[in-house]
Hints:
- The structure is a single chain.
- The mean pLDDT is 96.
- The chain has no helices and eleven strands.
- The protein is globular, with a radius of gyration of 13 Å.
- The strands form two sheets. Strands 2, 4, 5, 6, 9, 10 and 11 form a seven-stranded mixed β-sheet that branches. It has a four-stranded antiparallel β-sheet with strand order 1-3-8-7, with no helix packed on it.
- It has strands at 4-7, 10-13, 18-24, 33-39, 46-51, 58-60, 68-73, 78-83, 92-99, 113-114, 118-123.
- It is mostly beta strands.
Amino acid sequence: xxxxxxxxxxxxxxxxxxxxxxxxxxxxxxxxxxxxxxxxxxxxxxxxxxxxxxxxxxxxxxxxxxxxxxxxxxxxxxxxxxxxxxxxxxxxxxxxxxxxxxxxxxxxxxxxxxxxxxxxxxxx
Length: 124
């Protein structure tokens, strides 16, 4: 089992940047592919980005491709998402999640463990 805690959210102006972090407990972090998802008010939770166990493979939603970068540090049991050129439509609660499967997935149902989320608000 792994516990996930997100941090780094906040209020930023459009065009600005934020880096979210997700710290994982336990000694098995490197066994999990990791993903970031987000949920805006009144909308379903949606996929943002995923990274493989080693960090060699990454996968992005079209809406964030070229603006967001996912990375991980297995020595620190942490996954990050660097968010640049933020837009008001990026406003949401951002969640990290862990997936024991080998292949990267954008499917919310494939992820086994979830953090509590961190709020990102982008003002226009």
